[in-house]
Amino acid sequence: MGLTNIDIDSVYAGELSIGTPPQQFLVIVDTGSSDLWVLESGCSQCSGMTAFQDQQSSTFVNTNTPFKIAYGSGDAAGTVVTDVVTMDTFTVQQQSFALVNQLSPELITAPIAGLMGLGWQKISNIGKTPWWQSLAENTWADPQFGVYMARLRNTRPTSRVNENGGEITFGGVNSSYFTGDINYMSIANSDLDYWRLPISGIWVEGNNIGYSSSSANAAIDTGTTLIAGPSKVVASIYAQIPNSEPLGASSGYQGYYQYPCNQDVTVKMGFGNQVWTISSDDFSLGPLSSATPDMCVGAFFNLEGNNPYVSWIVGATFLKNVYSVYRADPPAIGFAALAQGGAAPETVNTAGTSNGSSSVSTNNGGSSGGGGGGGSASAAAPTAAAGYTLALVAISCLLAMHT
After folding, report:
1. Active-site residue among 7, 83, 193, 221?
2. Which domains does the chain have, with CATH numbers?
3. Buried b (16+ CB within 10 A) or exposed e, 239-267
């Protein structure tokens, strides 16, 4: 199923239908939460946005159970209901979801009309089996789904809504988007909440910043634009970039950093025994304003709050550089090299990722694609593109919050 890329790699969305007869909606595909919700026709804050007309569906059932969910970028509240839900070619009858009639204005904007949570039932606020998990357990012969997130940042699109935004494949993977093997990393049955993995290392400009911990759990989150992590580690990342500096509270982006746009910054992240390069196109968000045209905002920012499951949120900044796979049985997350536009993975001895340098070698068989980014950061992310991203910076932390 094709994905729509909105606001130059800020949001990736897909179409679904609800009800009898079906009503169509464009929703964020979000592995960082587990609930499906769409806007209700009675939502007073949702003017100009597509909303579900429950009185028009003959299969609609209102459970009258209150619903509320908090994200890093705002809240949504309404009522739990059931109806027929179809995405791609897969249908679940009597699927539980929420109709939202109260919404933080910064949470979504048109043409988005809701969110499809693709995480595990354990973190569902509704408490019912998520749509995808029901299919994985009862319908799909291959209980996994694969995601390709297209990069439009370096193509300078003229529209904020682009239908050629990638693809999500339910009940399998699409081998045309990747090359080589999928490197699966197992998830313990006790950890089936977010799709999360430990980070095995981070390298900036070739330097190992000495960060590796079994407790460094990262939520792999298609519903997040950027990458958020502990403030001390984020500071260590930017310490490797000459003349970088934190943005103050007066900028409206406290917790973010900026650095000279004429630097092509290379950041690599390790998961398991493989290391993946983040394109410099994805690291740079462009200048914050015309007042500082030579300073670009970086894609790593401080993660606030205290989530008991994860200390990192890894979003599209990373995921555009891999083909990602989410397997239900046995539970695992997999990454594969992109067939086009991505760098081959490297292998690393994770035992050597404490302080100092670590031996990293290229896996030449990993990809037939070229490098992920060329040209200057300022050219790759013009101010107009940065404006789209920074205007939607709230979406950068869309992972559902559970404390």
Report:
1. 221
2. 4-138 (2.40.70.10), 177-397 (2.40.70.10)
3. ebbeebebbeeeeebebbbbbbbebbbbb
Is position 88 annotated as part of the catalytic site? no
Integer Cα distance of 112 and 92 in angstroms:
22
The Cα–Cα gap between 352 and 340 comes to: 31
Residue 402 near residue 33, CB atoms below 8 Å? no
**Residue 30 catalytic?**
yes
Q: By C-alpha distance, which of 84, 80, 64, 73 is closest to 32?
A: 73
The values of phi and psi at residue 191, to 5°, are -110, 25
Residue with tokens 């027929």: 84
- Given the residues 30, 83, 281, 282, the one annotated as active site: 30
Beta bridge partners of 70: 75
Longest dimension (CA), the chain: 64
Q: What SS3 state is found at 99?
A: strand
pLDDT tens string for the chain (403 positions)?
999 999 999 999 999 999 999 999 999 999 999 999 999 998 888 888 999 999 999 999 999 999 999 887 789 999 999 999 999 999 999 999 999 999 988 889 999 999 999 999 999 999 999 999 999 999 999 999 999 999 998 787 788 999 999 999 999 999 999 999 999 999 999 999 999 999 999 999 999 998 766 668 999 999 999 999 999 999 999 999 999 999 999 888 999 999 999 999 999 999 999 999 999 999 999 999 888 999 999 999 999 877 888 999 999 999 999 999 999 999 999 999 999 988 889 987 644 433 333 334 334 333 223 223 322 222 222 223 333 333 334 344 445 555 4
> What secondary structure letter does DSSP report for 123?
G
Q: Do residues 350 and 212 touch, judged by C-beta distance below 8 A?
A: yes
Rg over alpha carbons for the chain, rounded to the nearest Å, is 20
